[in-house]
Specification:
Elements lengths: L1 H6 L5 H18 L1 H13 L5 H50 L2 H6 L2 H43 L1 H8 L2 H38 L1 H6 L3 H54 L4 H42 L20 E8 L8 E8 L4 E5 L6 H7 L12 E4 L2 E2 L5 H6 L1 E5 L9 H6 L7 H10 L3 H5 L18 H15 L3 E5 L7 H15 L3 E5 L11 E6 L2 E6 L1 H7 L2 H11 L6
Parallel strand pairs: 3-8, 3-9, 6-7, 7-8
Antiparallel strand pairs: 1-2, 1-4, 4-5, 9-10
Helix pairs in contact: 2-4, 2-6, 3-4, 3-11, 4-6, 6-7, 6-8, 6-11, 8-10, 8-11, 10-11, 15-17, 17-18, 19-20
Length: 577
């Protein structure tokens, strides 16, 4: 994992080297003050070398001015390196998320993913900036101050240094507990983010059902978990800092006692003793910095670990020699297709279907029967494993085709329309970003949404709000249809595209859908059976199997499941499931 972290420094090697050199100079200039202090106490002041005193002071002042600029460079460019690394990690993570299969999103909440992209990577950024600087400055200061203290009095220096092993033992002991506590805190923070994301997204449902109290309870449950985990994390951190600070305080006590005894015995003079007291802070300061760095390291390391967890998720796979799907006619074959989302239950069992070019196949049946799963398998959203049958487009097994080439040739209109934050133009052009203005307008006209758009003050540049909240259900659906018109795929999937609409709107949308289906091979998942009476063929899907197939008239004449479903639906006034 360390190697992967260090790889993000590669694009910034020159700037990192300059940053480290600046940090090194800061350490070296820090050693000047105690050296000059000792010289002044032992030489300049006793010998009344007043001009030397002034010169020495000016030298120190000049070095401090230099150190001011060096610190500016380290603070600014060091943080810049960290931000750029964070940006690269965020791009890598987002790009990887785009490649992950549906299964990943089935099992991971959006809020948790957002936490990893934002707060986790911020901690990594802080580590990337402060880590190398703290390690270099503290290490150099530690070595130089130790060597310099040895030149003053090696016995007193070794006495002070003897406390360091105790400091290491104590910090190591509490560091492990602190690491575990902060990892738990991060998980609870992700839980809160997931709850907030879910509640805000569903705020209209919450208000409609007057369930604000219920959402508050759910939020408070996560909040309590976060407070408890934070309490444990800060308790571990407090123990860590209190114990290590106590040992560093002991350094001063030892210097006070041992130095006083050495001064009393005449082993060192007052000037050297004063210099030693000043200089020992140069030794203690990097030690405490390294101790504090452990906390930052834990935060950054746990954040990077969670980043790596997602980066190690296996992306969607395609065959090494996968080919492009070109010149698509739209002949579909499902051959002995068996599929399950997990090992507990099969969703599809030995399904066989053949759809000719330009034909419309309707899939009907109870919820959970496997209709939508069939539609998800065709674009290879879920991979069909070897031995579980195969799905062919124009005779080519989709497992041998490039994923993008398959999906470019398939258009999908669903019941739950997803529109992106932005304008009407942005959302229609999502179907084909390089389309011309004329092509976009033609797609809107064919979807029967152009006239409405032109009544808006800003027309196609009208903002639609989050997920199209400013539009009605029918308007959102027609925008999604316009998007597919612009894409112009050879194969079309309509997954309950009108089931959430009122009857009047459904008629208008159905006209757009009929226009969209013309000349395209179409799979239609429908609960309102009245909308698929004119399908070329209807297949009844129950418990993962095809139980009946035929035209509307043939299935009605057969008097089986389809006829019963049809009669039940109209008896219940257009409700079905």
């Amino acid at each position: 994992m360390l190697k992967r972290f260090l790889s993000y420094y590669k694009p910034h090697k020159k700037l990192l080297v300059m940053d480290m050199l600046a940090a090194l100079l800061i350490s070296l200039t820090g050693m000047v003050y105690p050296i000059i202090t000792r010289t002044m106490l032992n030489d300049f002041i006793p010998n009344k070398l007043y001009s030397a005193i002034i010169v020495a002071g000016c030298v120190v002042l000049g070095l401090y001015v230099l150190r001011m600029f060096l610190r500016y460079f380290v603070q600014y460019y060091g943080h810049l390196i960290g931000v750029r690394m964070q940006s690269q990690m965020r791009r890598d993570l987002f790009g990887h998320l785009e490649k992950l299969p549906f299964r990943f999103y089935d099992n991971n909440e959006t809020g948790r993913i957002m936490t990893r992209i934002t707060s986790d990577l911020f901690e990594v950024c802080e580590l990337a900036h402060h880590g190398p600087e703290n390690l270099l400055i503290s290490s150099v200061m530690l070595v130089l101050s130790f060597v310099y203290l040895m030149t003053i009095d090696w016995v007193l220096t070794l006495i002070v240094f003897a406390c360091v092993p105790f400091l290491i033992i104590v910090s190591t002991h509490f560091r492990k507990a602190m690491k575990e506590a902060f990892q738990a805190r991060r998980k609870s923070n992700a839980t809160i983010n997931a709850a907030v994301e879910s509640s805000i997204t569903g705020i209209r449902v919450t208000k409609a059902y007057t369930n604000a109290a219920r959402e508050m309870d759910k939020f408070e449950k996560g909040d309590v978990e976060f407070v408890e985990s934070s309490r444990d994390a800060y308790s571990a951190m407090a123990k860590f800092h209190a114990s290590t600070s106590f040992i560093t305080d002991v350094f001063n006590v030892i210097i006070l006692i041992a130095g006083g005894l050495f001064l009393y015995a005449g082993r060192i003079n007052f000037a050297d003793y004063s210099t030693f007291i000043v200089s020992v802070n140069l030794f203690i300061s990097p030690v405490t910095t390294l101790i504090g760095f452990m906390e930052q390291f834990q935060n950054g390391a746990s954040g990077f670990k969670r980043f790596v967890e997602i980066m190690d998720e296996v992306p969607e796979q395609e065959a090494p020699d996968a080919m492009d799907l070109e010149s698509v006619h739209g002949v579909l074959d499902f051959e002995n297709v068996t599929f399950s989302y997990d090992e507990t239950k099969e969703v599809l069992h030995n399904v066989n279907l053949h759809v000719e070019k330009g034909c419309k196949l309707a899939l009907v049946g109870p919820s959970g029967g496997g209709k939508t799963t069939l539609c998800h398998l065709l674009p290879n959203f879920y991979r069909l494993e070897e031995g579980n049958g195969c799905i062919r487009i124009d005779g080519q097994d989709i497992r041998t085709l490039k994923l993008d080439s398959i999906r470019r040739n398939i258009g999908i209109v669903q019941q739950d329309v997803f529109l992106f934050v932005g304008t009407i133009r942005d959302n229609i052009l999502y179907g084909r970003p390089d389309a011309t203005e004329a092509e976009m307008i033609e797609a809107a006209k064919r979807a029967n949404i152009h006239d409405y758009i032109m009544t808006l003050e800003k027309g196609y540049d009208t903002e639609i709000g989050e997920r199209g909240v400013k539009l009605s259900g029918g308007q959102k659906q027609r925008l999604s249809i316009a998007r597919v018109f612009l894409k112009d795929p050879a194969i079309l999937i309509l997954d309950e595209a009108t089931s959430a609409l009122d009857n009047t709107t459904e008629v208008l949308i159905q006209q757009s859908l009929d226009e969209l289906c013309r000349g395209r091979t179409t799979l239609v998942v429908a609960h309102r059976l009245s909308t698929i009476r004119n399908a070329d063929e209807i297949a009844v899907v129950m418990n993962g199997e095809i139980t009946e197939r035929g035209t509307h008239e043939e299935l009605m004449a057969k008097g089986g499941t389809y006829k019963n479903l049809y009669a039940l639906q109209f008896r219940d006034n257009d409700t079905f499931e």
